[in-house]
Backbone:
């Protein structure tokens, strides 16, 4: 029997200003994510391999298959605690079989989690996505990451060009007051 | 004696003819492989590694990273890496001409480096065109041949704040001098960039042949 735990829904989206894709800094999704949490008065760890970052999944030895990491539960807890304390939080995501030069050699992209909703005991997390320059698309209520039974956070994202991507959260970078 | 004279004249004609053909061939090669920078020449005329001065190479790389980290990375990090999209027929691809123009405007980049970037972009564009993209793409390349554009060329990550850099060492290699540079966040050395440089004409400054950067 599944134990249903009632959690409070949280929405910090009004506290965070959206910063989206820039043509002159096409790879700068971490910077845009930092700008977003910065607008709410926070900053994150100084770099990708920082000891305070928590890894949820990472490519295994074959370089293709995602493998859960020992900190996966702690990372989920960190996200919840951040939101419960009114802090948006930056997470890394994987969506393609490659990486974009990040320290974990897995993360492709960075987004900001700004809310949580619990339906039938399943947590889903609302995120702002700097993949796009469109405010409405980047902050859409459809941008959701769902907590899965395997301990991962995954969700679908569709670009303005109708390209469907599946995000899996790879890494969590804590927020600190500026 | 007459026989020797005929042989000598024939050899002279053959040599002249062969040189002429070689020059023509060289011109052709140059036109095909070197579509850039008139102030640089192709890689055949680069100086031999032992003739190159390591301190001078390190000084060049210092100048380059000073320029990149202070003038380029903060505001237009992708400017010399990924050009804007343009339409070819009805579909979006990346502008090769704009990238070429941008790269040519920077004296740090050698022809060899520029050619490498242009060839990669051509391959990427071929894949993009085959996908028949009708809405201008934004962040994240979805075609394998274009994945390389999702990384910065001279630093790691997706916008980490690098505070400084430090030359580690330099060594003579067959292609020139390989200068290793630590990229630093605060006092932490977080990444190592290996910059291959060479001089392509006597008395000319160093230029970048290749850069390979990764986290430590």
Residues:
């Amino acid at each position: 029997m599944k134990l249903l735990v009632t959690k409070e829904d949280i929405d910090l989206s009004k506290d965070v200003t959206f910063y989206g894709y820039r043509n002159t800094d096409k790879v700068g999704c971490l910077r845009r994510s930092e700008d977003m949490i910065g607008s709410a008065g926070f900053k994150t760890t100084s770099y990708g391999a920082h000891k305070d970052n928590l890894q949820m999944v990472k490519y295994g030895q074959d370089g293709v298959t995602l493998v859960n990491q020992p900190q996966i539960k702690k990372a989920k807890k960190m996200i919840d605690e951040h939101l419960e304390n009114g802090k948006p939080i930056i997470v890394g995501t994987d969506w393609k079989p490659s990486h974009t030069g990040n320290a974990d050699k897995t993360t492709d992209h960075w987004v900001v989690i700004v809310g949580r909703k619990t339906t039938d005991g399943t947590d889903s997390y609302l995120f702002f996505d700097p993949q796009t320059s469109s405010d409405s698309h980047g902050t859409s209520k459809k941008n959701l990451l769902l907590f899965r039974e395997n301990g991962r956070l995954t969700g679908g994202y569709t670009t303005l060009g109708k390209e469907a991507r599946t995000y899996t959260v790879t890494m969590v970078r804590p927020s600190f007051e500026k | 004696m007459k026989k020797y004279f005929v042989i000598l004249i024939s050899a002279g004609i053959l040599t002249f003819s062969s040189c002429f053909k070689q020059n023509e061939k060289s011109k052709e090669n140059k036109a095909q492989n070197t579509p850039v920078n008139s102030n640089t020449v192709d890689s055949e005329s680069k100086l031999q590694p032992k003739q190159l001065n390591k301190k001078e190479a390190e000084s060049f790389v210092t100048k380059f990273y000073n320029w990149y980290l202070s003038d380029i990375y903060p505001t237009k990090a992708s400017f010399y890496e990924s050009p804007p999209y343009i339409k070819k027929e009805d579909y979006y691809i990346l502008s090769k001409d704009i990238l070429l123009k941008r790269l040519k405007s920077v004296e740090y980049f050698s022809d060899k480096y520029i050619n490498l970037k242009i060839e990669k972009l051509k391959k990427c564009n071929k894949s993009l065109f085959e996908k028949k993209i009708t809405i201008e793409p934004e962040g994240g390349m979805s075609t394998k041949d274009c994945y390389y554009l999702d990384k910065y060329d001279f630093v790691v990550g997706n916008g980490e704040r690098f505070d400084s850099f430090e030359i580690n060492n330099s060594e003579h290699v067959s292609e020139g001098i390989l200068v290793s540079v630590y990229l630093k966040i605060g006092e932490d050395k977080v990444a190592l960039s290996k910059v291959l440089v060479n001089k392509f004409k006597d008395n000319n400054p160093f230029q970048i042949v290749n850069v390979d950067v990764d986290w430590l």
Chain A touches chain B through 36 residues (CB under 8 Å). Chain A has a mean pLDDT of 94.
